[in-house]
Specification:
about 500 residues; alpha+beta; Ubiquitin-like (UB roll); Uridine Diphospho-n-acetylenolpyruvylglucosamine Reductase, domain 3; Enolase-like, domain 1; 3 domains; five-stranded mixed beta sheet; globular; disordered N terminus
Length: about 500
Amino acid sequence: MWRAQFEPNLTRMTQTTPFHRPESQPLRFWRNGQLVSLSNVPPGQTLLNLLRETLRSCDTKEGCAAGDCGACTVVIGRPGPDGLTHEAVNSCIRPAHAIDGLALWTAADLAQPNGQLHPVQEAMVQAHGSQCGFCTPGFVMSLFALYQRTTALGHTPNDDDIHEALSGNLCRCTGYRPIVQAARQLRPQDGPGWRIDTEAIRACLQALPARDNAHAHYALPQTLDELLQLRSARPGARLIAGATDAGLELTQQLKSWDSVIDLTRVPELRRVESHVHHIAIGAAVSLQQAFDALSADRPNVHPFGARFAGWPVRQSGTLAGNIANGSPIGDSMPLLLALGASLVLMRWHDGVRAEREVLLSDFYTGYRKTLLAPDEVLAFVQVPRPVSGEWLGVYKVAKRQEDDISAVCLALHMVVRSGHLIGVRIGVGGVAATPVRALKTEAVLEGQEDTPQVWAKAMQTLASEFNPLSDLRASSEYRRQVLANLLERAWIERRGHHFAHLEDVQ
């Protein structure tokens, strides 16, 4: 079992470690050739605010303060076994302390000391990719991250790479064509001037003294046991991973955080474990990595995952965070409900780890309420592997095709054997106080022959099974009708018709 791989590690903390009132810990990160250390940074201060107000680095812009427009995009470098991974992230919703021990680049850090522009910046100039200029720093940083992932390694990005990299950036001047043309000009450079010494940066960061998490108001535990012990001692602390939703509390709701536990540095939670009958996705695994893992078993999940916000959000946010957040319009939950996913909840009890496993379908108890106890952590998401004869359809309806929240989401899983439908599970979002299974409609399909008459009855049942609210995204009647239409789309797709999805139309 995968649990057996995680033996207790008490080298950093023990059961008798005294927990004191959290206090400020220095924020340390690498930027522009040197280590930066800042004191008295509040746990709820955003990275954007730190850059603009504390460091006076005003090249990074505030657009929406919600992670939607990309004007605030910066790039962070995370040390790993192969050097640094470069991630484009929204600094407006990223807590400043989340970059402790990492590297940071903004648009002001890219040019050479003699003023020579970085190839990404030069390409934007040559292609006239900047119009009003407000969004330009964010576009430059998204392309810089793409450059580091591809061009710096000797590869030339294709159009799919470019569009994906820019999916989290909005241009108010409708200047996308020259920006894409600029990206197409990126080529591997011959000279050493644009090569980042990632090994030197990684060595510098790894030499930093360990953070005193037991006394930190923003804790970054390094092991699973340390995380669970901190959670036990601070059940009221804000538990975060990518903070793509939690960050909105700071910018939109103007809340403040007194104590934070950030689980993104726990190695056990940053992995996708592969097992015979299931995969286990750690709580710190990004949405992009999670969708990639799910797509490896079920390829039709890939286009669905690509519609889950833009690239920076998918690199920052986590699958477990989306589940724990419990939004009734969260995209991942209908899919996972249909797949029969379960959750592993962990806590520290009597000096050892304690865990329990619950089905995702049993996890929600009300609007944004779950079975998770105050001292528990949602540690792993377990997703069963495909079985013979399985069929999966997953659909999302939103006001925009890309980078938008669902109005209605539906996922249908079934196994077809001898012309009969078995193991039917339908997950839906946007129609109730929580993501939920359509149990009445499942009962109509379960065990029946795969005939038009059975599907027609199921569509009728699904249209009346829920009584959703009307809000700014859709009316109640619209949602009920769309549910039935999506089930009809599944029936059409099952029969091999083309263009069941908009992305099928080239």
